[in-house]
Amino acid sequence: MKKEQKKSRAIVILLIVAILAYIIIAGVFASAALAIIPLIIFFFLVEIFIQNSIIRKILWIVYGIIVIALYLNSTNTLAGFFQNILFPVAVFITCMLLYMFDSQIRSWLEKSKLLPAKKY
Q1: Is 119 domain-assigned?
Q2: 34 in a domain, yes or no?
Q3: How confident is the model over 31-42, as a mean pLDDT?
Q4: Deepest in the core among 25, 54, 58, 88, taking most CB within 10 A?
Q5: Domain limits at 40?
Q6: Residues 6 or more apart from 120 whose CB is under 8 A from it?
Q7: Alpha carbon distances (Å) from 85 to 35, 63, 88
Q8: 28 within 8 A of 56, measured Cβ to Cβ
Q9: What percent of the chain has pLDDT over 90?
Q10: Residue 113 φ/ψ region, left for φ over 0, alpha for ψ in the -120 to 50 degree band, beta for the rest
Q11: Contacts of 16 (CB under 8 A, 6+ apart)
């Protein structure tokens, strides 16, 4: 095989790999963005409007159950590592961390003046 043929094959393979990587990265970014936007909205709604710590913790459990149920309902349309493995694990870990550190998160938000101080 000539040197020019090897070079042209290498360029074609490089372009194919680059295009596939772009498609995969774009899909993962879109999936991550679509997964994180409802979490951010729900986070601020819960932290701003719900004063009771127990109710906030219950809402985080319910949020996790709803997101996992929606994921399980749509697995036939999703493909790839992020959607099949990473997404449910990330939702579970995020909900557990928000559940466990609810009071600390609340105090940090109050100290940063994003939330009003507790009324006793």
Answers
A1: no
A2: yes
A3: 80
A4: 88
A5: 3-111
A6: none
A7: 14, 19, 6
A8: no
A9: 6
A10: left
A11: none
DSSP 8-state code for residue 54: H
pTM for the model: 0.64
Reference 92, options 68, 116, 59, 119; nearest CA is 68
What per-residue string of b and e applies to 61-96 under the rule 16 or more CB within 10 Å gives b?
eebbeebeeebeeeeeeeeeebbeeebbebbeebbe
Written as one letter, the residue type at 41 is I
Amino acid letter, 80: G
What is the total count of domains within the chain?
A: 1
pLDDT tens for 65-103 read 888 887 777 655 555 655 667 777 778 888 888 888 888
CB 105 within 8 A of CB 47: yes
pLDDT category, 17, cuts 50, 70, 90? confident
